[in-house]
User: Fold these one by one.
Assistant:
Number 1:
Amino acid sequence: MNGLERDKKVYGVLQAISEASRCLNCHEPPCSRDCPADTDPGTFIRKLKLKNIKGAVRTIKNNNILGGICGALCPTERLCMKGCSASGIDRPIEIGKIQRFLVEYGWETGFDAIQKKGFGKGRIAVIGSGPAGLACAAELAKNGYGITIFEGREEAGGVLRYGVPKFRMNTEFVERELEDVFALGVELKTSARIERGGADRLLSEGFEAVFIGTGTWSPARLDIPGSGLVNVTDSQKFLEGMRSGKDIELASKIRGKNVAVVGGGSVAMDVATTCATLGANKVYVIYRRSLREMPADEEDLDLALAHNITLRTQSVVTDLLGEDGVLTGLKGIETDWKSLGDHSAAKLVTVPGTEYSLKVDFFVRAIGMRSEEANKGLSGLVEDLPNGLVKTGDDGVSTTNKRIFVGGDAARGPALIVQAVQDGKKAAECIMKILEENKSGGGACE
Ligand SMILES: Cc1cc2nc3c(=O)[nH]c(=O)nc-3n(C[C@H](O)[C@H](O)[C@H](O)COP(=O)(O)OP(=O)(O)OC[C@H]3O[C@@H](n4cnc5c(N)ncnc54)[C@H](O)[C@@H]3O)c2cc1C
Ligand code: SF4
């Protein structure tokens, strides 16, 4: 499959059934064990194999409200497919492709798979409409709670709408899956940023609990000379610009020009591939460690390489150069490790005599994301860690305030969509438990 077709449907009904028919119906399916959001592939694949397509769709959507998006974007090779027993015979079952097919089949046939289990319960506020907030909202709404999501940006979806490039996830697909959340009666307030102390205010206004799913939207800094030059930016601004009306302006800065991206994760690859598709003359990806330590998923790295990017591993940028305030090039130097066998970042040293320079017109930092400074102190009673994340209890979602929960990237740091769904579901369970127990005398979520 050409990488640029990853946002397109991959299976038809017969292909999906044929793939499911290779499944061994494991007794305690490793695939189900390895899905953080408990989407339960073992069950939906068995149902599909028996041609119970509606049952299969029902299993996915009731376990994971973002089942279509996870099917398309999860790194399945290191999750559900990793321990698949079919690998012992030939190759693992293509679980992500089957999952995505089933969700789309449900939409195309107008099948309303989601079962509502309760009505008329209390009001809960959700801050942020990324995967964590959406999953928490859907789970609570299914169980009869009245949910309001407060979203700071103009539209819902978090990174799904404002980060992941369109060639991997088109906006229509995201919007269709979001419809399933709002069809449960979830209210959405957009351009409604919650400020410092806002979570406490929501509780005092009558919301019975608050879920914080604000993600990580502040790029890590790279303090090198020239960082203030025109055409020097970061991955978040670049990718958000590409998905919110600045794509033509950005394309005009990149077409026919040389671009350098610094970083070695999947986000750096997304940026590099996007620049290549915009018609850049040359795209360099500069990463301080070796190919072996590169954190990017193999599929994302392969896609970038298929677009002829130039990898400069074991290399750091030392200076950005400019003329009249505009970027014209960079200086860098190669790196190595102090001693053989210890490839940790701390042991990395620059190698004298390996200095180099490149002519580049556009530079993107993609070296990690942190919580926004402005999101510290959303509640006076919730403890923020020095790295900006919200401190949680052992369950990963409770905070020092019994009625405030957190999940997704805001608690974990940059992670995965399926882990944000996991946290959203877990927080919803805790909220329901606490509210039920309080009615009969109180108790915390454990
Ligand atoms: C470019 C990119 C590509 C990625 N690709 C993949 C992938 O292919 N597969 C995968 O599994 N993961 C991927 N990820 C990671 C994944 O997208 C995140 O782990 C996931 O989106 C986290 O969900 P979240 O709900 O915690 O936060 P987010 O998706 O970040 O959503 C947080 C929301 O909260 C809002 N918000 C923030 N502060 C406030 C406030 N004070 N008041 C109101 N609203 C607020 C934000 O506007 C945003 O809408 C990618 C990440 C990036 C950056
Ligand atoms: S692990 Fe593989 S073979 Fe076993 S149930 Fe899951 S998909 Fe089927």
Note: The pocket of iron/sulfur cluster (ligand 2) is lined by residues 23-26, 29-31, 41-42, 45, 84-86, 93, 95 (CB under 6 Å).
Number 2:
Amino acid sequence: MNIGKQIAEKRKNSGLTQQALAEKLNVSFQAVSKWENGFSCPDIELIPKIATVLKTTTDALFDYSAHSFTEYDVRYEKDGYFWGLQPNSLCYEIMKLKPPVKPYRVLDIGCGEGKDAVFLARNGYSVTAFDVSVVGINKAKNLADNLGANVDFFNADIRDYVPDTNYDIIFSSGVFHYIPLSSRGKIIKNLKKYTNLNGINVLNVFVKKPFIEAPPDSEDSEKKVEAWKSGELFSFYHNWLFHRNDEIIFDCNSNGFPHKHCMDILIAEKI
Ligand SMILES: C[S@@+](CC[C@H](N)C(=O)[O-])C[C@H]1O[C@@H](n2cnc3c(N)ncnc32)[C@H](O)[C@@H]1O
């Protein structure tokens, strides 16, 4: 394992000089040079930030790939688009609240095969989007190319991602139930911090209700993460203006087993 080699390679792929990377990380140019030449290693606290700036994952920096093939990779490898190509209805709510009178900066977290990111980019937003699934991101890039949309897609894990710039709109659908209880506060604190004033966070998460049984097809990774409590997502945003805080129960028939889900939906504005 040579983290310096990974940093050098990914820095060059990102078109950054050693000096530019050093400035983004608040370290000296000599420090970056030493890492890349194998004379020293970055501090452990700096690793997630390096991964974010280089638009990669901490696993990739360590050249560790045991977790890189996700359950979603299997789904996304099939022909067609697993989630279809119709944009999420929340995209229309974004357009109503923040019409693209200028290229508002959007971050789509867990963008899957990219349908929503591409839709928003085609409607005039400046979109950055990532997903833990490499297969999903490759499909998303193809979708954008085929439709002539410009989206900054990259592969990353929300659990170790820290934004490196501010956004006007942070959007994530169907992803937060993968965030373990212990990381939720820290991750959401960063999303709030990196949202511009009057910017919005548009999020949803599956929540547990005592009267709804767990779906029969929940994935292994989902089972390992503590279920979100009803209202938990809203409580993280108590000091923002709520445009929407709904809890919905809906029918689902995934894998042929009729069951129900409960989901909390939040649209909150930083004021
Ligand atoms: C239910 S899909 C939703 C995809 C997309 N947001 C949509 O609505 O079409 C969940 C997505 O979250 C991604 N995901 C799961 N865990 C993740 C993580 N830790 N970091 C980033 N993405 C993750 C999966 O790869 C998958 O694409």
Note: The chain is about 35% helix and 25% strand.
